[in-house]
Amino acid sequence: MTQFTDKNVLVIGGSRGIGAAVVERLAADGGQVAFTYAGSQDAAAALAEKTGAEAIRSDAAHRAALVETVASRGALDVLVFNAGLLVLGDPLELDPDAVDRMIDVNVRAPYHAAVEAARQMRDGGRIIVIGSVNGDRMPFAGGAAYALTKSALQGMARGLARDFGPRGITVNVVQPGPTDTDMNPADGPMANDMHSFMAIKRHGTAAEVAGLVAYLAGPEAGIVTGALHTIDGGFGA
Ligand code: NDP
């Protein structure tokens, strides 16, 4: 497939998991892909070698570095904001600094990255943020702060879709359910509990999520904007 031939693509948080699958998919479909990462240098180097994508070390929690990285890519066709942290636990016990860092990465960073990308983005561009079905449904205790961050993306996408719509730029949220990655392994301790909420009782794969991202980033999705796209095996049904 060549639907992204010569398209300028940036994936924020692409070294592992869903982000790495998005890098692989969009690069395989012809995109000129760059991706950022914070700590996983070996994984980033291996992915760059495998896909031909460019790896950039840049912590999304640092606004100035993030904005500089986005601006340095010039006129993007596609921005995928995937980076995310998951901090779970009793809100009375959680480290408030860890909660704040999660809010920095999951909420402040996608907002500033999206706005910066839009400054130079070509008309008809695509902004896709990876949210979570937990933005809609949080069926267990200990997830309030994470759910807060993912719900915030819903309002952000709806608003930015209005701001950038006149230029044909779409803004969408992809909301995975349990997906087999380092963050949420299919054989992890919470897997059976999660599957109990699902119509299809298995973790999704990162490649399945990347397929939905590729659709939204592609030419057939030009009228899809300000919307939430849940891919969760019925977790939220
Ligand atoms: P992983 O923890 O497996 O991978 C996270 C990726 O984000 C890594 O590439 C990591 O890079 C990058 N990242 C994290 N923090 C930063 C940062 N500060 N700056 C730059 N990059 C960063 O997570 P998943 O692939 O599972 O999750 C990806 C997204 O999908 C997240 O937003 C998550 O909330 C969401 N999601 C995941 C679900 C799941 O079940 N897996 C379900 C629903 C949503 P590095 O290793 O270099 O730090």
**CATH homologous superfamily label:** NAD(P)-binding Rossmann-like Domain
Output the radius of gyration.
17 Å
Name the ligand types. Answer: NADPH dihydro-nicotinamide-adenine-dinucleotide phosphate
Per DSSP, what share of the residues sits in E-state strands of 2 or more residues?
15-25%
User: In total, how many beta strands?
Assistant: 7
Summing up helix and strand content along with how strands pair, one would put the structural category as alpha/beta
CATH architecture name: 3-Layer(aba) Sandwich
Q: What's the total helix number? A: 7
Helical residue percent band? 40-55%
What are the segments in which pLDDT stays under 50 over at least 5 consecutive residues? none
Number of domains: 1
**Based on CA inertia axes, which overall geometry fits?**
globular
**CATH fold topology:** Rossmann fold
So what's the CATH class?
A: Alpha Beta
Order of adjacent strands in the largest pleated sheet: 3-2-1-4-5-6-7
Order of helices and strands: EHEHEHEHEHEHHE
The pLDDT mean sits at: 97
